[in-house]
Amino acid sequence: MADQPFNAPAIKTKHVHPTRTSGKRPLHRVTLLVAHETATPFGSREGVVNFFASPARRGSAGSAHQVIDHDKRNRMAGDRVICNGASDGGTDCNERGIHYELCSPSNKTDKWWMRTKKRRRALKRLAWAMAEDVVAHDIPTRWLSPRALRKGKRRGITNHRNITKAFVPGGHTDCLPVRRWVLRRVRRFARRIRS
Ligand SMILES: [Zn+2]
Question: What residues make up the domain containing 100?
Answer without folding.
Answer: 18-194
